[in-house]
Amino acid sequence: MQRTHTSIFPSAADKTAPRVALCRQLEENWNRIQVGRQGSYSIERLVSLDQYCNTTSWTRVILVCVSTPIPSLLVAVLLECFPLRPPSEGWVANWVFWLRMSLTSVLLAFGGYSQLAAFVPDLHFTLCKQIIASTGLAVGLIGTSILAAKIIGFPVPLLMQFGAIPTGFFAVLLLRLVGGSDAFASGSPIVAQMKRFQ
């Protein structure tokens, strides 16, 4: 008869097995939600990339890498040039704060809507429609933020996090109003493109 040794204290292997399984499960879930890993590369894309790499000069590559962040940095610096009043003076006296926030909102919304127009071409979301929707979104967000400042007090704690809720609401509402109902009609090919865009 063979004796087995059992202990009330778990061994090192017993402790690490659940951790390893948990780590593997977390890694699998993380990889599943990654947008970049769901695409596929065709031969045509790889050939195009190879041709681009072989024909593009280093000067162009460096120029693109250096000049790409300049517009964003320029906007950030220009927004910081607007002087702010002390928060103790209230939300009415801080009209420059609302101006800065509205300009930021318009630019962010325009960036999002321009990506939507690029990735959902059947939507026919023209430049004029993008500007109208971006401006409307900023007006709705600033109006909601001013209402919160009146009710809660100025400055509103976590205003940018609070603003995510009205931004999501107004973005969809203005897409519907400006872009038309085709983006939301069932059976429309735009719906499939919109789901891929998300």
From TrEMBL:
The chain crosses the membrane at residues 61-85, 97-119, 131-152, 158-178. Keywords: Membrane, Transmembrane, Transmembrane helix. This is Uncharacterized protein.
